[in-house]
Design brief:
Elements (H helix, E strand, L loop, with lengths): L1 H24 L5 H26 L8 H41 L16 H27 L4 E9 L10 E5 L10 H13 L4 E4 L15 H4 L8 E3 L15 H17 L3 E2 L3 E7 L2 E7 L14 H5 L7 E5 L4 H10 L5 E4 L8 E4 L2 E4 L10 E5 L2 E5 L17 E9 L1
Parallel strand pairs: 1-14, 2-3, 3-4, 4-5, 7-8, 8-9, 9-13
Antiparallel strand pairs: 2-14, 6-7, 10-11, 12-13
Helix pairs in contact: 1-2, 1-3, 1-4, 2-3, 3-4
C-alpha cells in the first residue's frame, strides 16, 4: 500500500511540473479556451492516476486482458512522456537553486533573469522546451504501440559449435520467447508472425518461456494460432517466471496450482513438448542432440524453481547439448560453472527492454544495466548464449527501437 501511494504521489508531481509548462504557453489565451485546456489536461491525468490506483487496489482481477492493455498504455504514455518534459524544468530548478545559493555568498552577483537571443523570456523558453520534450516521446511511444508492437523481425544467426557432428550441421532452429498472450490486442498481426515462422521451414522450434502474463486463460483464444506451428523434429517449450502466476492474487494455493496445470495443458493442446527439469535426446543421422529444459531460475529476486542438475541428467552422452532456460542470468550463475559441456543456451526474459536503440553495432537499452546478457549472441570459451528479444510485450504495450523477434539459428561446425 505504501509503495502504491508513493507512486501515485510521484505521478502527481510529474503532472504538476508538466502543467507549469503548458500553463506558461497558453497564458495569453482567452479565459474560456484556457479553462478547457486545463480541464482536458487534468482529466487525462486523473484518469491515469485513478486507473493506477484501481488496478493496484484489486481491479487487476476484474479487468479483461484488453482493458488492462489499454490502461497500461494510458498510464505509460502519459507519465513516461511527462518524465522527459518535467526533467527540463527540474534541471532548471536545480540550476536556479545553485545560483541563488551562490548569490547569498556573493551579493555583488546579480541573479536577475535574462532574455535569450530570441527575445522570449527564460520561463517561456523553458516551457517550450519542456512541452517539446513531453510531446515528442508521447508521439514516439504511441507510434510504438500502433506500428511497432507487432513489427516482427527475423534474426538469422549462425551458431558455430566445436566438434559438432556432421549429421547435425545445418539444422535450422526457430526460437520464440516471451509471448505474453494476455497483452495482445491485434490477433491478425500475431497470426502473421506465426506465418513468418512457418515460412522459414524450421527443423526444430523452441519456446523459451512466458506464454502468459499471469493466468492460463489468457492463451485460450490463441491456442488455434500457436498450434499452427509445426516442425519435423518437434516443438519444445519451457516455463518463464510469469507462467507460474506469482504476480497476481489467488483465492487459495490450490487455485493457483490449478492455473499452472491448465497452462501446462495448453502447451499440450498446441503440441508443444513442455520440458520441466528434464531433457529429450533426438537421434539425427546416428547423432544424438540433447534438448534440455529447465524450469525458471533467475537471479536478482526472481523465483528459482529450476533444478539444472536434474534437467541435465541423461544428456551426458549426447554429441551436442542445447539448454532452454528462460532467464539469461542463469547462464553465468549456474550453467557455465556447473556444465561446461552445454554448448548452447537459449533464453529470453529481457524483451531487449522493449525500448532502446539498435543501429548497426550501436546497441542501447536500459535493461542492459540489469542484465549483462540482454539481447543477441554471447560467447565464453566454447559455450554460447542467445537471448531472444521477445515475441510479445508486457507493461508498455508496444516497442520502440527494439522490434519483436523471431530467431532463426543454424548449427554450424566451428
Amino acid at each position: 500500500m505504501f509503495s502504491i501511494i508513493i507512486f501515485a504521489g510521484l505521478f502527481l508531481l510529474l503532472d504538476y511540473y508538466a502543467f507549469q509548462a503548458f500553463r506558461v504557453l497558453i497564458d495569453d489565451l482567452a479565459a474560456y479556451p484556457r479553462r478547457i485546456i486545463y480541464a482536458v489536461y487534468w482529466i487525462i491525468s486523473l484518469v491515469a492516476i485513478s486507473g493506477f490506483l484501481f488496478y493496484n487496489l484489486g481491479g487487476k482481477n476484474v479487468l479483461t486482458d484488453g482493458q488492462r492493455t489499454f490502461l497500461f498504455a494510458w498510464i505509460f504514455v502519459n507519465y513516461a512522456s511527462k518524465f522527459f518534459g518535467s526533467a527540463v524544468l527540474v534541471i532548471d530548478d536545480v540550476v536556479r537553486l545553485g545560483q541563488w545559493a551562490y548569490t547569498q555568498f556573493s551579493p555583488s552577483v546579480s541573479d536577475a533573469p535574462s532574455e535569450n537571443a530570441t527575445g522570449i523570456s527564460r520561463s517561456e523558453f523553458l516551457a517550450r522546451a519542456s512541452v517539446v520534450a513531453t510531446v515528442v516521446p508521447a508521439l514516439g511511444f504511441s507510434y510504438g504501440i500502433a506500428s511497432v508492437a507487432h513489427d516482427y523481425r527475423i534474426h538469422r544467426i549462425k551458431i558455430p559449435i566445436a566438434n559438432l557432428p556432421k549429421g547435425l550441421e545445418g539444422i535450422q532452429i526457430a526460437q520464440l520467447s516471451d509471448i505474453h498472450s494476455g497483452s495482445f490486442f491485434n490477433k491478425k498481426a500475431v497470426m502473421h508472425g506465426i506465418d513468418m515462422v512457418m515460412a522459414e521451414k524450421p527443423d526444430l522450434i523452441f519456446f523459451t518461456g512466458d506464454l502468459v502474463n499471469n493466468k492460463a486463460a489468457e492463451v485460450e483464444e490463441y491456442i488455434p494460432v500457436f498450434n499452427k506451428l509445426k516442425a519435423p523434429l518437434g516443438i519444445y517449450s519451457i516455463l518463464g517466471n510469469h507462467d507460474y502466476g506469482d504476480y497476481t492474487s489467488w483465492s487459495s494455493p490450490q487455485v493457483k496450482q490449478a492455473n499452472l496445470e491448465n497452462l501446462k495443458h495448453a502447451h499440450k493442446l498446441m503440441n508443444w513438448k513442455l520440458l520441466l527439469d528434464e531433457n529429450e535426446v533426438l537421434t539425427i543421422d546416428n547423432n544424438r542432440l540433447a534438448i534440455i529444459g529447465v524450469e525458471h531460475w533467475g537471479t536478482g529476486g526472481f523465483a528459482q524453481y529450476g533444478h539444472l542438475n536434474e534437467a541435465y541428467q541423461g544428456a551426458e552422452d549426447a554429441d551436442t547439448r542445447i539448454l532452454l532456460s528462460h532467464d539469461p542470468s542463469h547462464w553465468d550463475a549456474q550453467v557455465r560453472p556447473q556444465h561446461s559441456d552445454i554448448e548452447l543456451t537459449l533464453s529470453g526474459h529481457t524483451h531487449g527492454g522493449q525500448v532502446g536503440l539498435e543501429w548497426g553495432s550501436l546497441r542501447w537499452s536500459f535493461v542492459q544495466y540489469r542484465y549483462k546478457q540482454w539481447a543477441g549472441l554471447y560467447q565464453e570459451g566454447n559455450q554460447q548464449l542467445y537471448v531472444n528479444r521477445g515475441f510479445g510485450y508486457i507493461g508498455y504495450p508496444g516497442r520502440l527501437g527494439i522490434r519483436p523477434e523471431i530467431t532463426m539459428l543454424e548449427l554450424t561446425r566451428a
